[in-house]
Specification:
Helix content is 32%, strand content 23%. By secondary structure, it is an alpha/beta fold. The structure holds oxa(dethia)-CoA (UT7).
């Protein structure tokens, strides 16, 4: 048995900064509502027509992670790509990344677990490395939300929250069993699937021919829906539960945490969790202020920034945790 360690990290966000004031020109919202309820000051949106997609952003983040891991692209044994905003309905972006990076015919897996996508991906990658099957796995979380948001007052409860961006990690074999990913913990509760969802263009409710024939501009099923307060209430409970589960599994407690990197859903959620575990400001990394909620990309972007700022150091106990659509949630306990 081996462990897996994160040997390289990278992220990419589009240059185009969209402030809360910018959004207030498109819909009935304002800077103080957004900051007070979410902590978000600005986010990045791909400019229409500039060519960036979920895949291309993922590729840009991946190139940085590969270089920092000190490996060649041909050393990658497997690709895992998490997103809720794929370029195509199918095939998923895993194979598109493989093509763009010109990596030989390794397997590429797409993960559909929204905000928990990166933790689910880490967990899958970790099992492959632990078992000895693979040595280096490229894990990407990337999202292009802006193209799919309802930028009118009707969609303001969702549209002000989400941003575009990508993060990537290389997971590599670690021979020292006391280091690297110690454990991952995954959960889901499909009972609440529609509480945070995008129903169309799924095949479940309607036939494609009907969708095309309808072409109804009032059809909201093409936009993401979120029952915000219900999601919020579940998030704070599940974040806490899954962090405790991870700590217990490793005979650790909150006092052992050096750095908590929560999925950037809402600054108020992060602050609730911080308070619950009695963590100082410097023990929780947040960047939702700059990027909004980038779902599957949020943890790898935050982890990369924390690492770049020397806030994640060798020997640190790093805890990652996420909650989101599905509902799905999870945590990863890492000895850096
Ligand atoms: O990443 C996946 C997991 N996601 C989450 O965990 C998100 C969880 N939920 C949340 O973060 C919060 O519920 C939101 C930020 C989405 C919303 O905050 P809230 O405090 O729950 O607000 P609300 O939905 O209860 O809306 C309060 C009021 C409503 O007006 P009335 O009915 O009180 O007159 C909304 O219509 O705020 C109104 N509102 C807005 N006003 C200005 C909703 N969106 C906006 C907006 N600007 N953008």
């Amino acid at each position: 048995m081996y462990n897996s360690k994160i040997s390289g990290l990278g992220y990419y966000v589009p240059e185009n900064v969209v402030t809360n004031d910018d959004l207030s020109k498109l819909m009935d919202t304002n800077d103080s509502w957004i900051q007070e309820r979410t902590g978000i000051q600005e986010r990045r949106h791909v400019i229409k027509g500039d060519g960036d997609t979920t895949t291309t952003m993922g590729v840009k983040a991946a190139k940085v992670a590969i270089e920092r891991a000190g490996i060649d692209k041909d050393d990658i044994d497997f690709i895992i790509f998490a997103t809720l905003s794929p370029d195509y309905y199918f095939p998923g972006p895993g194979v598109l990344v493989q093509r763009d990076l010109n990596i030989k015919t390794v397997g590429a897996l797409d993960i559909r677990n929204q905000c928990s996508g990166f933790i689910y991906s880490l967990s899958v990658a970790d099992q492959y490395i632990k078992s000895g099957m693979y040595k280096n796995i490229l894990v990407i979380g990337s999202e292009l939300h802006s193209h799919g948001l309802d930028m009118t007052t009707r969609g303001r409860g969702v549209s002000v929250i989400f941003g575009d961006g990508a993060g990537a990690a290389i997971l590599s074999r670690e021979e020292d069993s006391t280091k690297g990913i110690l454990s991952t913990h995954l959960h889901s509760e499909g009972e609440h699937a529609e509480q945070l969802s995008l129903i169309a263009p799924g095949m479940g409710k309607r036939w494609v021919t009907d969708i095309i024939a309808d072409q109804d501009e009032n059809d909201e099923s093409y936009y993401p829906y979120m029952n915000g307060q219900f999601v919020f209430k579940n998030a704070v409970v599940r974040f806490s539960e899954v962090i405790i589960e991870g700590l217990k599994k490793n005979q650790l407690e909150a006092a052992n945490i050096d750095m908590l990197i929560p999925h950037q859903a809402n600054l108020r959620i992060s602050q609730f969790v911080q308070k619950k575990f009695g963590l100082r400001n410097d023990q929780v990394f947040n960047n939702i202020m700059k990027y909004g909620n980038t779902t599957a990309a949020s943890i790898p972007i935050a982890l990369t920034e924390a690492w770049e700022q020397n806030k994640v150091k060798s020997g640190d106990l790093v805890v990652l945790a996420a909650f989101g659509s599905g509902f799905t949630w999870g945590s990863a306990i890492i000895k850096w």
